[in-house]
């Protein structure tokens, strides 16, 4: 505690933190086998009113957890920040030493988790000074349900040992400097419902082991260097609702058999994935819950399937910046309902049939009138397409941030499943 707070007197002032004056950031529970004793079970530091902030020069020493064997939740927000010593003049030697301590990078000591078998939630977020590799010893925390290491400075590969965390329900390693491939061992996380590896430098193909995560509801692998195609095993992810793959060099058509099998999908994001070929006409037909679909900034060609308008819950559709061609033959009612949430701009070969849409609708579609009665530069939108290509989401990156903003805030109070998933719902309101 003294290492985190920068207060060497803390152990003397708080010899019994559970029974003395209540200390912000610490929660205690009655021992199940002895109601006369209290145990420290939750420890939270963060830049908010309810909890104390870490002090400059904070450290993570092994005794933090070794002395709290009953700890269930450890949350550290904004504790380890790399200071900029040149941003403003530092007048005194003491202030300079203070700032230099804050600037020093911190690594997670592997021994930190040696005696933490009770830990269920580990949330270390927004600590850019927290660097080094993710310790493989995290795999010893067999009770862990939430592991969030987002927005730190971790580097290196994802430890394959993490696959031993069979009870883990949420894994968030987003916004770090992780490299290498997604390990096949990730398939051992059989309870995982939320997986966020976005905004790293992960490379290689998507492992077939992803198909073993049968409880998965959200997969955000966006903003990496991952290559396609999607493994066929992912067709078995029957609970998946959010598939975010944008800004990866997938470079192929998305297998229609995979996406079309994911009947609970609500958001599909594959913007900027290098997808080619036509949009397959029936790939999304069975996705009755689909609310947001983004395929922008790819190399898709051919007509826009009119069948997209039959999706009852579709509220956002971004097909901009592709090579789509032909007359836009989406029903006028569909175009009016989506309004500016329908984006087909940047497809030079698309055109609008005369009299099909009102002036305002035709204007924001951004396509010229078809030159001839036959449909200008190509077939009407309802044209058939048998090549397998689909999904993309430009602002699904915004979605990823939305998940984190809502989810992390609730982690200290308990499991954040509902907050994380509910935060997905309004995400597509900010797309485009």
UniProtKB/TrEMBL annotation:
<protein>
    <recommendedName>
        <fullName>non-specific serine/threonine protein kinase</fullName>
        <ecNumber>2.7.11.1</ecNumber>
    </recommendedName>
</protein>
<keyword id="KW-0808">Transferase</keyword>
<keyword id="KW-0472">Membrane</keyword>
<keyword id="KW-0812">Transmembrane</keyword>
<dbReference type="GO" id="GO:0004674">
    <property type="term" value="F:protein serine/threonine kinase activity"/>
</dbReference>
<dbReference type="InterPro" id="IPR001611">
    <property type="entry name" value="Leu-rich_rpt"/>
</dbReference>
<dbReference type="InterPro" id="IPR032675">
    <property type="entry name" value="LRR_dom_sf"/>
</dbReference>
<keyword id="KW-1003">Cell membrane</keyword>
<keyword id="KW-1133">Transmembrane helix</keyword>
<keyword id="KW-0675">Receptor</keyword>
<keyword id="KW-0325">Glycoprotein</keyword>
<keyword id="KW-0418">Kinase</keyword>
<dbReference type="InterPro" id="IPR003591">
    <property type="entry name" value="Leu-rich_rpt_typical-subtyp"/>
</dbReference>
<feature type="transmembrane region" description="Helical">
    <location>
        <begin position="405"/>
        <end position="428"/>
    </location>
</feature>
<dbReference type="Pfam" id="PF13855">
    <property type="entry name" value="LRR_8"/>
</dbReference>
<keyword id="KW-0433">Leucine-rich repeat</keyword>
<keyword id="KW-0677">Repeat</keyword>
<keyword id="KW-0723">Serine/threonine-protein kinase</keyword>
<dbReference type="GO" id="GO:0005886">
    <property type="term" value="C:plasma membrane"/>
</dbReference>
<keyword id="KW-0732">Signal</keyword>
């Amino acid at each position: 505690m003294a290492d985190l707070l920068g207060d060497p007197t803390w152990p003397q002032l708080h010899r019994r933190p559970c029974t003395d004056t209540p200390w912000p950031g610490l929660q205690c529970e009655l021992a199940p086998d002895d109601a006369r004793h209290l145990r420290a079970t939750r420890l939270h530091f963060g830049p908010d009113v309810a909890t104390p902030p870490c002090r400059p020069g904070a450290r993570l020493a092994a005794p933090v957890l070794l002395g709290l064997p009953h700890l269930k939740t450890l949350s550290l927000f904004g504790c380890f920040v790399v200071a900029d010593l040149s941003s403003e003049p530092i007048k005194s030697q003491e202030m300079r030493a203070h700032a230099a301590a804050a600037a020093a990078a911190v690594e997670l000591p592997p021994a930190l988790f040696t005696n933490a078998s009770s830990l269920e939630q580990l949330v270390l977020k927004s600590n850019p000074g927290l660097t080094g590799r993710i310790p493989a010893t995290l795999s010893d925390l067999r009770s862990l349900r939430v592991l969030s290491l987002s927005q730190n400075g971790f580097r290196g590969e994802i430890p394959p040992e993490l696959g031993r965390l069979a009870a883990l329900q949420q894994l968030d390693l987003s916004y770090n400097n992780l490299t290498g491939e997604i390990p096949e061992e990730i398939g051992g996380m059989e309870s995982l419902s939320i997986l966020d590896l976005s905004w790293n430098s992960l490379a290689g193909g998507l492992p077939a082991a992803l198909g073993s995560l049968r409880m998965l509801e959200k997969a955000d692998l966006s903003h990496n260097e991952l290559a396609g195609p999607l493994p066929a095993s992912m067709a078995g992810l029957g609970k998946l609702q959010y598939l975010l793959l944008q800004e990866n060099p997938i470079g192929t058509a998305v297998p229609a058999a995979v996406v079309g099998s994911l009947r609970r999908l609500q958001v599909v994001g594959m913007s900027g994935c290098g997808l080619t070929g036509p949009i397959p006409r029936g790939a999304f037909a069975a996705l009755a819950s689909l609310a947001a679909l983004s395929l922008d900034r790819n190399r898709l060609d051919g007509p826009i399937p009119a069948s997209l308008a039959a999706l009852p819950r579709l509220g956002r559709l971004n097909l901009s910046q592709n090579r789509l061609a032909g007359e836009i033959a989406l029903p006028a009612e569909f175009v009016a309902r989506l309004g500016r949430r329908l984006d087909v701009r940047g497809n030079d070969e698309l055109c609008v049939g005369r009299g099909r849409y009102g002036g305002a609708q035709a204007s924001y579609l951004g396509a010229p009138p078809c030159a001839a009665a036959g449909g200008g530069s190509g077939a009407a939108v309802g044209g058939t397409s048998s090549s397998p290509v689909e999904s993309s989401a430009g602002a699904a990156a915004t979605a990823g941030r939305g998940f984190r903003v809502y989810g992390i805030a609730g982690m200290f109070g308990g499991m954040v499943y509902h907050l994380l998933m509910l935060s997905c719902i309004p995400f597509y309101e900010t797309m485009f």
